[in-house]
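Researcher: I'm comparing several assemblies side by side, and this is the next one on my list. It has 627 residues spread over two chains. Same procedure as the others: predict the full complex and return the structure.
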Amino acid sequence: MGGRELAELLAQTSAGVRAPTLAEAAWTRAGRVRRRRRILTGAAAVAAACVVAAGVSVPLRAGPGPGTAPAPTGPTAPPTASMDPPAVDRMPQRPGRRAIRPLPTTGAAFRPAGARRLSQRPVTRAVAVVQPHGAPHAARPEPLYVLDTDGSWARVDVVDLAFTRDAGNNKAAPLRPTSMSPDRRLIAVPQTDEVLVVDVTTAAVHRIAVPGFNEYVMWRSNETVLVAQDDGARPRATFAVDWRARTVTRVAAGLSVWDTVVSGPDGPVVELRGAADAAAGGKPVLTRWRLDRAAPVSEVPVDDGALAPYGVDTWHGPALRNGSDGGGGLVVRAGWGRAPAYHGIEVVAVVDVHTGVVQRLLDLGPDRQKACCEPLDWVDEHTVLLSTDREGLVTWDVRTGAVWVVSAGQVPGGVAIALR
Amino acid sequence: MRYLHVTATPSDEQAEYVAFVRACQYRLLRSAYLICGDHHQAEDLLQDALVKLALRWRQVRHGEPEAYLRTVLYRDAVSWWRRRRRESLFGAVPEVAGADGAEAVSDRVVFATALARLAPRQRAVLVLRFFDDLTEARTAEVLGVSVGTVKSQTYVALRRLRALAPELGELVVTGPSAGTGGTAGTGELLVVAPEPRATSEDRDGRA
């Protein structure tokens, strides 16, 4: 069979589609979107004017007048990291180099040869975990390799891993960018019907039964890992697994762990979702949850207006926060966005977790692979470590916009990194 | 010299837009249907892409609006499927008619069932290459991937189609001297080089 026969089969398969009449409706809908945007812009300007007016009038008031209710003394918004006005950075053509020990200086070195066995000598603390890409159609994924603080590698030989699967029988290698525990001792790996927790400092493996298509893991604390399933149901089922007590609790919150970032055992749970209807002017949303409540605590639209014509429509990859509520207040995530010259670019954006304002955006430029890049860790309060398809591992300073290459060339596998 | 500036009025723009969309909407809807396998979903995807086009009509109308529209449509389709990762498995592939010919199953049905079982990006690559008749380079541009990824996805998709529907005949012939992917719409034999370097998505069988 040749290309012509394949083209004919495709034509026959779609022959039952009726000719649509969408042109006028689409133009009308676009008009509504334009009007809504104008209204929102006007409302934002009015709101900003009110804020400015209020700010000016407050010093003029000597104090509360008679009968004025005292100011509420409830919890105030925590301080946000000091940021300059929102700005856009572009990935430089040739970024400079910087080293972050013990990360390798090349991406290729993340496929270690001659690594010792973990059972032979465990590691002190994990800095990175990598799972190299395997051969096409291999029955099992490659093993995990752990980078120790001294720069040596250990192969996790204490467990045989399988691919994760969802209800549609899609499979994936099981290491997630969020697999490492905060104390860098534990690696959580989703498997169908169970979750594995590997203590890399003792080479012990803990298996906790969680029936279902477990697909994603994220540490809430050093004891609790959130496990998300994809069995086709909406919302997706999420469980809180205490690996030490071996308890599994269904999470009431209707969140998607794929879009979620947590900040410590008692910190808030924040979800950064893409626009439900970007074409109709919908905005990404930043939602706060409590795990024991089905309804969200609060919700604010992500505000990228100050960056126009740049913007973000959808997100992908992990969302990472630069500290708890008492400290940093920034979430970084990769996404799909807009640029002046064209629609549809890969970006990385930093969002203020309290206001939803996009504070900084990195334009990765055209001709990237889809979902090419994602954040892996915060090096410090204002510097993100990113994985990219061309440069390799880079750092991006969200205050200055400076980009430096740490490990040159794409890492040939899945990777999780925790530097702090 | 005096220059005459001609500015299109909104009604001109609308008329232009409507004429353009009327000319290409049927073809694009069929493409969307081939990717997502659902009439309603295909219309939703195309409708969203048309709204985005209308919002940027002033900027793209003198460029390549169809290329812009196709890019938005395909990327949205693949993203939609990726977000939901809800590969529809259409039950078992219909059995081929037995030797007695008691139950004939048309090639089209077998093909549609096999196509539905490919990963979204694999379907998108096949549709762009062989239904929309785009080159590998243009397919890569539309999907925002490298040409190498297009080649590898084409290879994997054709091989999987052959495995899922062997009764359709040889979709792929591997040959040591071949150097390029198939030639769309020419009727030539599809020849795919020895397996190209696969991406992680190829390995995962997921687009």
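Model: For your comparison table: Residues 48-82 of chain A have pLDDT under 50 and may be disordered.
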